[in-house]
């Protein structure tokens, strides 16, 4: 995994662990060993990607995530992931936008490096 992806994953996990409390950029930066500016850029990227972040500026501000909005990482075998892809493809035009989004994520994960 690329360092930025690993760091953003760690950032999400830090926010999930502290949810629903706000966590400052300074605290997150210290925990992850990066600058506050790096945290701000990562938070902006995650927000732009659709992550349900709460951002509060000013004194006492920080970042939070609705821990109920995302599943923790799930370890699937390639066979399990392929079975899910097959099921979504079989439903075809009747599948929801959510199913199509999941399909794209699975296909991306199954791509050889």
UniProtKB/TrEMBL annotation:
Residues 7-63 form the Helix-turn-helix type domain. It comes from the Bacteria. Pfam families: HTH_11 (PF08279). This is HTH domain-containing protein. It comes from Kibdelosporangium aridum.
